[in-house]
Amino acid sequence: CVWCIVKQAKEGVFNPTEGAFIASLKDERRSLEKVAIGKTRVFTAGNVALTLAIRRYFLSYVKFVCDNRIENEIGLGINAYSLDWQKLYKKITSKPAVIAGDFSNFDGSLNSQILHRIPKVINKWYSDGEENARVRETLFEYLVNATVVMGDSMFILNHSQPSGNPLTTLINCMYNMFIFRYCYLILKKKEGAAQTLMDFDKNVSCVFCGDDSILGVSSRIINWFNQITLTEVMATTGHTYTDEAKTGNIVPYRSIDEVTFLKRGIKDGGRRCPLDKETIEDMGMWITKEPNTPNT
Fold this sequence. Notes:
The protein is an alpha+beta fold. The chain contains twelve helices and ten strands.
């Protein structure tokens, strides 16, 4: 129950069985290549009591983040049909070179040390006492060390981010903010430059939405902080980072007209947000099979 989870969390007690997630295979179409190797995706349905407890202690922060989207590097709540797309355009094109990318197996590659930094940032924003901070830290344990029920088995993960939790996108966004800055420091070290983030905002403008990323990069650093070097250093952290279309054709950087974000282009100064043509055409090529639809 919600009360049970919160009461224990106030004492810093994490009870795995109270907030278990239920794993299910995702009902979606997959490419023939992925079908052949049995690469079906799994999603985890969140425990209702845990979901309510998390929303109770985190939702004000989520609203704050959404209200300040894009400017705070997070695209959660972005509306492509509003002025948001122009704000995105202006932020990214404040730097001449553009990088856009995506991850493979992002959820399965997350680093627990970085994940544990996220509630500390959130607690600093709330600044509402030790007990509430302890509750949030403990509730976060239900996500990072998630208990998952699959069939008649139950197991606990150790660097998880279950897809059925109410903070999924927020956590992914904040994780990206950390990991890209970490890579920035690593690449600065390779370049022989001082390992500081003091100049990060001066050199990089970025927006993240889940595991999707788009960055504007200054000409001062593009020779060592680019899509190729980022892909290489991300690999050392256990992440597979590639271009947003996952073509595998990695180039150092592109222009804003050549990239997409959330499967949409950024055209005419952000006034147009054309959806990927393949996505549009694909919609009319299939129909969900159900009893009341003839000839499916």
